[in-house]
Design a protein that fits this description.
Helix content is 55%, strand content 12%. With 163 residues, it is mainly alpha-helical. It has two domains: 58 residues, no CATH class; 102 residues. The strands form two sheets. A two-stranded antiparallel sheet has the order 1-2. Strand 1 and strand 2 form a beta hairpin. The protein is elongated. The relative contact order is 0.10. It is found in: Mitochondrion inner membrane. It comes from Galleria mellonella. Belongs to the COA8 family. Pfam families: COA8.
Length: 163
């Protein structure tokens, strides 16, 4: 997995996370402190997984439930990142091997129809992995949804108690 470095991108003065391949691409600084940002920060797509990393804001008065929710969101994000990084790395590697084996001399690429043989074989081979991933993804999101609802209800009732 590529290291995550912070790249300063002028977009309403926000800092964005970006996985980089070399130090030449980026200015290396520490990711933002979750307690000092005003909202969740979303970075550009990872070049391998194509997912955008998020730094989740940590409220100063974060409750134990809110902390549990934020940590679970981070864990799910990392799990998702690892799955798609492994999956896409395998895909790129196997596609390169397929091209080396099947690319006729003098030709630079295969047609979409010719590549469809590889795509179908890759999807068939990884079918079980995708089913397992989808089942786990739904389970994790249902847990996150349950925690999000609890956090929201706690905030609503806390506000009503203040008034």
């Amino acid at each position: 997995m590529l290291p995550v470095r912070l790249i300063i991108i002028s977009n309403s003065q926000k800092l964005m996370l970006c996985p980089t391949r070399s130090l030449a691409d980026s200015k290396v600084i520490q990711p933002p402190n979750p307690t000092k940002i005003s909202s969740d920060m979303v970075g550009p797509p990872d070049p391998v997984s194509n997912l955008r990393r998020i730094v989740f804001k940590q409220a100063q008065d974060e409750t134990a439930l809110e902390r549990r929710y934020r940590r679970m969101r981070t864990e799910v994000q990392e799990w998702n990142q690892e799955f798609w990084t492994r999956h896409n790395s395998r895909f790129f590697q196997e596609r390169e091997e397929y091209l080396k084996k099947n690319l006729p001399k003098g030709k630079q690429t295969l047609s979409a129809d010719e590549m469809s043989v590889f795509y179908k074989a890759f999807l068939d081979k990884n079918w079980r992995s995708h089913i397992t991933y989808n089942i786990e993804w739904y389970k994790k999101n249902i847990k996150l949804l349950g925690l999000a609802i609890q956090v929201k209800l706690n905030r609503v009732f806390k506000l009503k108690n203040i008034k």
